[in-house]
Write a structure and sequence with these properties.
Aspartate Aminotransferase, domain 1; Aspartate Aminotransferase, domain 2; 7-stranded mixed β-sheet; 3-stranded antiparallel β-sheet; 12 strands
């Protein structure tokens, strides 16, 4: 049985054009700064995201941890939401590596309220840690692919500037957010002192992410990358795919968003509980009850019908649409929904 993989956009395959570019990419030793394809990608990525400089890193998690190490000092407190990737999925790296404490806030669909952020900022007191960084995620994975609006970002930035606090954006899917909001990604990153984005999710590159910020920040971040073992040699083979990812694949993300809407509408029409207003990008979350008692039970039923999905909690199933899901596969998913979720 052919499997339709909706577990994540991390499962995307590199395109034929990427594979061809990787095969002929000129390379050198990147630790010496001598890989021309890495240098091209970093300059291009910095321009695309509107920052002075950029750094190619093996993964988004490493990019996030490098940002922490570069922005903070041990014992600092970082404000983020309670479902942020850095809190939920990065193996306590903030504590283990940077020696930082995470102050987690409630959120609305992945977005932090500026009033809550300001209230969380520590006053200067010998008993308290220094609040040094605000951490945002755009689009927000556990929020269901939801996005910060520019108005929300403006308000958060005003609070951060007032209290001299830097902002890092975990923009693993910032190009999805940009496509949804019909804005340039550099506009969404404008208030952020640093931003990380992935080349290997919806953009389909096989490996790698970008960390961007000021030239001074990236100079220090490069040292932190070496500390974590992220210094690479002839990595231009990977960067060649990243250049195509940025130049071409970011322009097609609206297709994935449209397909996510089609699937979400079918679920809702069949009586499955899904908040359609939250289906903004390529991620959708739905509650399979009362058709299935748990998310795991629903995921097992989907797998038996050739559709791979993720149990995101005990009562939430996640679908992620991506480049490797074509129109025929979307139709097949709709047919499986009709089979497994039969409206009475």
């Amino acid at each position: 049985m052919l499997k339709i993989d909706l577990r994540s956009d991390t499962v995307t395959q590199p395109t034929d054009e990427m594979r061809a570019a990787m095969a002929i990419a000129p390379v050198g030793d990147d630790v010496y700064g001598e890989d021309p394809t890495i240098n091209e990608l970093e300059h291009y990525a910095a321009a695309v995201i509107g920052k002075e400089a950029a750094l190619f890193v093996p993964s988004g998690t490493m990019g996030n941890q490098i940002a922490l190490l570069t922005h903070t000092r041990r014992g600092d407190e970082v404000v983020c939401d309670k479902d942020a990737h850095i809190f939920f999925y990065e193996n306590a790296g903030a504590a283990a590596l940077a020696g930082c404490q995470l102050r987690t806030l409630e959120h609305c669909d992945g977005q932090i309220n500026p009033l809550d952020f300001e209230e969380a900022i520590r006053k200067v007191d010998m008993h308290m840690p220094r609040t040094s960084l605000l951490w945002i995620e755009n689009s927000h994975n556990r929020g269901g692919g939801t996005c910060y609006s520019m108005a929300q970002l403006d308000e958060l930035a005003a609070v951060a500037q007032k209290h001299n606090i830097r902002i890092h954006c975990d923009g693993a899917r910032i190009f999805n957010a940009a496509a949804y909001l019909k804005l340039d990604a550099s506009v969404l990153a404008a208030h952020c002192d640093s931003v990380m984005f992935c080349l290997s999710k919806g953009l389909c590159a096989p490996v790698g992410s970008i960390l961007a910020g000021s030239a001074e920040f990236i100079s220090r971040a490069r040292q932190m990358r070496k500390l974590l073992g992220g210094g690479m040699r002839q990595a231009g083979i990977l960067a060649a795919a990243g250049i195509i990812a940025l130049g071409k694949m970011s322009a097609r993300l609206a297709i994935d968003h449209a397909n996510a809407k089609i699937v979400a509408d079918k679920l809702a029409a069949n009586g499955v509980f899904i908040n359609l207003a939250k289906v903004q990008t390529n991620i959708l979350l739905f509650d399979p009850r009362p058709f299935y008692a748990t998310a795991d039970e629903c995921v097992d039923a989907l797998r038996a019908h050739g559709v791979l999905a993720s149990a995101f909690s005990k009562t939430a199933v996640r679908f992620v649409l991506h480049n490797d899901i074509n129109d025929q596969q979307v139709d097949a998913v709709l047919a499986v929904i009709d089979e497994l979720f039969k409206k009475e």
